[in-house]
Amino acid sequence: MATTVLSTFAVLKDHVKLKINENSVAIDNIVFRLHYRATFLALLVSCLLVTSRQFVGEHIKCIADNAIRSDVINTFCFFTSTYTVVKHLNITSIELGDIPHPGIGPATKNDPVIHHAYYQWVPFVLFFQAILFYIPHYLWKKIEGGRLKVLVSGLQMASLSLNEKEIVTGNVKVPSRKDRDERIQKIRTAFINRLHINRPWAYYMGLCELLNLTNVLMQIYITNAFLGGSFLDLGTSVTENHSGEVDPLDVIFPKVTKCIFHKYGASGGIQRHDALCVMALNIINEKIYTFLWFWFIIVAVVTALGLLWRILTMLLHARSTAFNKFVFSMACPGKHNPWTVLTVTHEYYFGDWLFLYYIAKNLDNYVFKELLQNLAHDLEERRLQRVRVDPNDEDEPLTKKD
Question: Can you give the pTM of this predicted structure?
Answer without folding.
Answer: 0.80
